[in-house]
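#struct-pred
JK: can someone run the complex with S-adenosylmethionine? inputs below
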Amino acid sequence: MTSSVSSASLVDRKLVVKSQGAPTGTDLYAADSVRQLFDRMSRTYERVNVVLSLGFSARWRRQLARLAPMQRRGASILDAMCGMGETWDVLTRRFADARFSALDFSPQMTGRARVRNLSRHAGRFAVLERDMLASGLPDASFDLVISAYGVKTFDQEQSVRFADELARILRPGGTFAFIEVTEPPSLLLRMLYGLYIGTIVPALARLLVADTEQYRMLGRYLRAYGDGRRTLDALAGHPLLVVEARKHFFGCATSFSGYRLAQAARP
Ligand SMILES: C[S@@+](CC[C@H](N)C(=O)[O-])C[C@H]1O[C@@H](n2cnc3c(N)ncnc32)[C@H](O)[C@@H]1O
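RT: done, structure tokens with the ligand placed:
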């Protein structure tokens, strides 16, 4: 189930709770903290993620791929914050004739992504171990940039840098689509969501893996991310980007999709 919301309505809602309280400038969002967290999680992430999300993570990846418009033959697509390539099956099904790059700054995640690339995708992904906020990728080099669950670990200032980098590497007219787990608007669902990420996820993680600290940390990022307002603000605030936010499954996930203008709509 998806519903489209304008950026204004998402921004204006009073129930944007935790994103204002996101601890900006602390170690939580330092590149090393995030990189080390995902390095440590890489062994269990895929298996645990499917179980803990009750299958929604895979469903939302499919919805994410459908949000991106069909691409011409040979189009250049970047999977940003690709993890170990969890989104690649849906991407290669939808964009069979595209050229793919995938970027992540965790050596463990990219190491596993490279194994998946060879074993399941005949090496068609160029896997790059780089920081998305200083990617070094050429200007105007992508027709589509996509990311599943990759933007919650950017604080407000990093989200603005991400929007700058996105506008720089997209061709004029190029498109983007991101999806992230978010806090739902309904009070009841929000209480259940809080209980789920605060108590149930760590408990389930304990059953599945020995070290649950990483899954507690993930809960911290999700609580601070709230309804995703900071991503929307950063994308909507960029003069070259046009963005639309959509809620998925009553707002338990939010996608941000849009395109890059040829020239700024406003000074
Ligand atoms: C929750 S995982 C998502 C992985 C995958 N996209 C998926 O669909 O499950 C987030 C990934 O973003 C990566 N990441 C976070 N910040 C990054 C940055 N600044 N540059 C590159 N990768 C980053 C992490 O290393 C991690 O692998």
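RT: quick notes.
Confidence is low (pLDDT under 50) at residues 5-25.
Strands lie at 2-5, 76-80, 99-104, 125-129, 142-148, 170-181, 241-248, 253-260.
JK: thanks, will look after standup
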